[in-house]
Each structure stands twice: as C-alpha cells, then as structure tokens.
Amino acid sequence: xxxxxxxxxxxxxxxxxxxxxxxxxxxxxxxxxxxxxxxxxxxxxxxxxxxxxxxxxxxxxxxxxxxxxxxxxxxxxxxxxxxxxxxxxxxxxxxxxxxxxxxxxxxxxxxxxxxxxxxxxxxxxxxxxxxxxxxxxxxxxxxxxxxxxxxxxxxxxxxxxxx
Length: 163
Fold this sequence. Notes:
Elements: E1 10-14, H1 20-34, E2 41-45, H2 57-65, H3 82-85, E3 88-91, H4 94-103, E4 111-114, H5 135-157
Parallel strand pairs: 1-2, 1-3, 3-4
Active site: 14, 20, 129
Pfam families: LMWPc
Region (Disordered): 42-70
C-alpha cells in the first residue's frame, strides 16, 4: 500500500508503542494540521507486548496538557509492510534504529533514521524512555519529540519536493 499524497509519510517507532512513539505521532499530526495537510502518520513498537492498548496514562496526560488527545491511539508492532507504506520510519532511540535496520527489506523505499538526528545539535541522542520514571520524564520526552517533529515538518512538510 503506497500513499498518493505529495507529502511524505511518517512512522514513529519505540519499544512498546505506549510512551514515546505515540507522543511523536501526536506531535507530528499537530505539525501537519497546523499546515492544513493530511499526511499519513502512525506509530508502532519493536515489540508486541502492548498490542491493542491505549498509550500509557502518563503519556495521555502529557498529550492532554499540550492540547492533544491520545485516547484513540492503539499500540501495534512494526511490520515489514510498513517499509513500503511509509517514506520515513523514525526510531526514538538507537536500539530501535538497530532493530528497524535489521527488519528493513532490501530495496525498501523507507528512510530509517533517529528522531533527534533531525534536530541541530542533538544528533546521536536518544529520546529517553519515561516508562519507569516519574511523570516529569514524560514532559522531557514531549519536549524532545516535539523538537524532532518540528524539525521533520520544517524539512519535509514545508517543501514537498524535498522528499
């Protein structure tokens, strides 16, 4: 399944798809919406532990504080077919990047990258996993995913020819 939009599509990937990647999905949806664009944006996990679950309550609370609704989202595991569906598959940390590169079929069109590599001065940095920490960690994660999504949007949504 390929998309027909002139704008690139994005899949954000973390471990269980209940903390970091849903927040990134919501942040990128906001960026597209602010530009009046309909873009294929999704999130997934490298594992299937939380398949079908809503994001972590702390992630949903963080999203809500920033005017976003995480309740409709449901966790899923990244699939091989995602490498044909999405132009950009974005890992939230280096372990996800390694897993994605192993899963990526040869000849796939998807560009696999680390989210914070798109933010000047943040290259090589992981978005921290807030799961085992306090609610404050979710705000730190939000700031990182928001910065990453703003940088992605500026590069790929403001100039569709730069796909």
